[in-house]
Specification:
Layout (H helix, E strand, L loop, with lengths): L1 H18 L12 E11 L7 H9 L15 H9 L6 H10 L11 H14 L6 E9 L4 E10 L4 E7 L6 H10 L11 H17 L10 E6 L7 E8 L11 E9 L13 E4 L2 E4 L9 H4 L13 H12 L4 E11 L8 E11 L3 E11 L4 E13 L7 E13 L9 E13 L19 E13 L3 E15 L4 E16 L3 H9 L1 H8 L2 E12 L8 E12 L1 H6 L9 E2 L2 E2 L3 E15 L2 E14 L56 E14 L3 E13 L21 E12 L2 E12 L17 E6 L4
Parallel strand pairs: 1-3, 4-6, 7-9, 7-11
Antiparallel strand pairs: 2-3, 5-6, 8-9, 10-11, 12-13, 13-14, 14-15, 15-16, 16-17, 17-18, 18-19, 19-20, 20-23, 21-22, 23-24, 24-25, 25-26, 26-27, 27-28, 28-29
Helix pairs in contact: 2-5, 3-4
Length: 767
């Protein structure tokens, strides 16, 4: 086996050596083009940003030479090998993935490139520059390069920028816009800047109602006659023979809304309802959407000037309801004469609804890293526009059965999960007090009411019942920021039907026992999210999510049982704690589908008052496909705790079955992502570090308490992964191995156990 491996390595090395030499494949009358050098020769040392100018000039150099690697041309080599009479399967495959067409000197048009360089310089204000070219050939290697000497002249700079006004009414609206321009004295002549200025003015004029205007109607003129030192005056005016309708603003004369629009029905006559100066076209006897509920989402108002931004905002707000598949806003010009000073537009808003009801079933085969496996079934029913106001109700039913396999004496343990839940979402704010319509400028908040009941039975151990209810709000402050506030969040957990075996386990583990004792959790939660990842083409992308969670304070005020310890409400012991965490992510786009993704997470939960330990459902866990991937899910920590060292003579503590949790969590991740087989298959190399800790030392969890030595208690792992990304749906496979295991003795923690990697399968990226 070793001989075979060495043979493969030798073949690869020989292939690379061969790839370094391709001159024997180059035709007799050709030279392989190796690119061009540009030398900038300014006529004065005062020219600013010469390096940027050189970079712009380099961008016009075509064609690009063949890529080079380790002194050779592997892409070109594979191309030549595939061009043979009988190339073979491997050569064809390598050529398809890595091959490059050769670029010869004959492909380079030297004269045309000189013209492109001069044109780029003139567009940037460097008039009367000079370019000379020379070609250097190497007959031995059969390569050639080009050299361009660019004589750069002093650029023309602007002295004044002014609007040429006449009697047209549009100039009154243009004048303040020109005064707000970023064009300043001493600015270099630059066609790109002028194009951007025209587009800015066009956008601003459209916001003032100029529906038929476009940037092509604006003309810049530069006058150098007043100066002899490369200065110019820049004048802006409207071109001649522009259509009259492009020079007048338009107002909205009528707003028609079709709440239940369909292509085959649009031509039919329908009833109409007038509400708040808008016409809602729908059957009076069978109203699809109540006008008073739909009206707040429409920002287009009769009598207002036409505005593209308001149109986009209206479309965005209507789309946020969740009841419509297509939203089309169409403007129709009402008879406008050339002599009119203001035009009229009729706005027609066509809304095509989604199916009112939908049923979805999901059947999954679940395999967990704690050796539990089994089927899972989920059924969901959705009803959109429930009360004719865009309300959405989702009802879900869940069933899961898992059995533990390959776990020694514990093989055959099983788990049954049953659950039913519902979410009722109102696309408006249900609140005792009224807010001004302009208070939520970007989006209208949603009100969400959730109810869930779950039952979990783990054979030979216990059954756990839980019920939860939340009432809260979700709203987008802008394109990047989302707020979530749940003023009411109630959870009740009841540990029932415990077996003597499980009672013994709780007796051996006071920390676990305490986390199950407090059955009633009532509090509030707020979450802030900034998602800069929506700008996928940006070089630097940021994401921040911060959550605050409080429980028990209100109950502590009203319980009235000050002498009790712990206190109860309705004979239920309630939890009291404060919890805060932050998830920060940064992505660096490297281009060509590659990026470096990083994440930092920090969380702390503080039990107080009525609680000594955080409730089990509110604790932090570490390990698994979205955490430190070199450790199994929820099997890292707390701290340096090692359950194998704390078994009793009967081996009661089962590390494969019980989660290891804490009220403190720190984690850091870094991942390099790159195309593997584009466009659908990507690769990754990553490293993770993190752990959870407790804030109190428990006899059952020795070594779990957070201390100043926490850096030496991090679980660290590294690995590689493959992602199948099909239009945003990502299937992820990660293989990770531990490098630093905090549960081992201090001198043995750097284990580098690459021979026993952990396989992770997940949906979506980890961060």
């Amino acid at each position: 086996m070793k001989i075979r491996k060495y043979s493969i390595i030798i073949l690869i090395v020989l292939g690379l050596i061969n790839a370094c030499s391709v001159d024997k494949y180059i035709p007799e009358d050709e030279y392989l083009y190796r690119g061009a050098d540009i030398t900038m020769l300014p006529d004065t040392s005062s020219i600013e940003d010469l390096d940027k100018v050189k970079l712009e000039v380099q961008n016009v150099l075509v064609p690009k030479p063949n890529s080079k690697f380790l002194g050779g041309y592997p892409g070109l080599y594979f191309h030549y090998k595939a061009e043979r009479e009988k190339p073979g399967f491997i050569n064809k495959f390598l050529n398809k993935k890595l091959g490059e067409e050769p670029v010869y000197l004959s492909d380079v048009e030297i004269g045309n490139t000189q013209d492109l360089i001069l044109n780029r310089l003139e567009n940037r204000g460097f008039f009367y520059s000079r370019v000379s070219a020379d070609v250097n050939t190497n007959d031995k290697n059969k390569t050639a390069t080009a050299a361009y000497d660019v004589g750069v002249t002093t650029p023309y700079k602007m002295e004044t920028y002014q609007l040429v006004e006449d009697s047209l009414a549009i100039y009154k609206d243009m004048k303040p816009l020109v005064e707000e321009s970023k064009f300043v004295k001493e600015m270099r002549f630059d066609l790109a800047n002028m194009k951007a200025e025209r587009e800015r003015l066009d956008k601003e004029l459209k916001e003032d109602g100029y529906y038929n205007f476009n940037s092509g109607f604006l003309l810049f003129e530069a006058d150098t006659n007043q100066y002899d030192n490369k200065r110019f005056d820049l004048y802006l005016k409207v071109k001649k023979d522009v259509p009259e309708k492009a020079l007048i603003p338009y107002k909205i004369s009528k707003v028609n809304i079709y709440p239940n629009s369909a292509i085959e029905r649009d031509s039919l006559e329908k009833d109409s309802i007038r509400f708040n100066n808008k016409t809602f076209v729908q059957d009076r006897d069978s109203i699809f959407f109540l006008p008073k509920r739909l009206d707040p989402f429409v920002l287009i108002e009769e009598g207002d000037y036409y505005s593209p931004d308001i149109s986009k905002a209206t479309s965005r707000r209507l789309g946020s309801i969740g009841a419509y598949k297509f939203i089309n806003i169409d403007y129709q010009e009402v008879d406008t004469l050339a002599t009119d000073s203001i035009g009229a537009l009729e706005a027609n808003i066509y809304l095509s609804p989604l199916n009112k009801r939908a049923i979805r079933a999901e059947l999954q085969a679940v395999t967990k890293s704690n050796n539990f496996a089994g089927p899972s079934l989920a059924l969901s029913l959705t009803n959109r526009n429930l009360f004719k106001g865009g309300e959405i109700i989702n009802i879900q039913g869940r069933f899961g059965y898992e059995v533990q396999v390959a776990s020694g004496n514990n093989t055959g343990l099983n788990s049954i999960q049953l659950g039913v839940g519902s979410d009722l979402i109102f696309p408006r704010l249900l609140f005792p007090w009224h807010f001004n319509e302009d208070f939520f400028e970007y989006d209208i908040p949603k009100t969400k009411i959730s109810l869930n009941v779950d039952y979990l039975r783990r054979s030979q151990l216990f059954a756990l019942g839980s019920a939860s209810a939340t009432f809260g709000y979700i709203w987008n402050a802008n394109r990047y920021v989302t707020h979530t506030f749940d003023p009411v969040s109630v959870t009740y957990v009841d540990l029932i039907n415990t077996t003597p075996e499980f009672e013994d386990i709780l007796g051996e583990n006071p920390y676990l026992q305490s986390s199950f004792e407090q059955q009633f959790i009532a509090g509030s939660m707020y979450s802030f999210t900034y998602n800069g990842m929506v700008d996928q083409n940006k070089t630097h992308q940021f994401f921040v999510n911060s959550t605050l969670d409080f429980a028990g304070n209100f109950l502590d005020l009203v319980s009235g049982n000050a002498e009790e310890d712990p206190q109860t409400v309705f004979n239920l012991e309630y939890a009291q704690y404060a919890k805060a965490d932050v998830d920060f992510r940064y992505h660096l786009n490297l281009g060509s589908g590659s990026k470096i993704a990083t994440r930092l997470f920090a969380g702390y939960g503080m039990p107080y008052g009525n609680s000594e330990i955080m409730p089990f459902t509110k604790q932090y866990f570490s390990g698994g496909p979205y955490s430190v991937r070199a450790f199994r899910i929820r099997q890292l920590g707390p701290g340096v705790y090692n359950p194998d060292e704390n078994r009793d003579e009967n081996g009661l503590i089962n590390t494969d079955y019980f989660d290891r949790a804490g009220n403190i969590r720190l984690e850091a991740n870094i991942e390099y992502r790159f195309p593997l087989f584009p466009p659908y298959v990507n690769g990754a190399v990553f490293a993770d570090a993190g752990n959870v800790w407790t804030s109190t030392e428990e006899d059952s969890l020795p070594g779990g308490k957070f201390s100043s030595n926490f850096m030496n208690e991090l679980g660290i792992g590294t690995g590689v992964g493959v992602r199948v990304d099909i239009q945003g749906f990502v299937i992820r496979f990660d293989l990770a191995a531990p490098m630093h295991d905090p549960s081992l003795p201090e001198g043995d923690r750097w284990s580098y156990d690459f021979g026993s990697p952990i396989f992770n399968f997940a949906i979506g990226y980890p961060f």
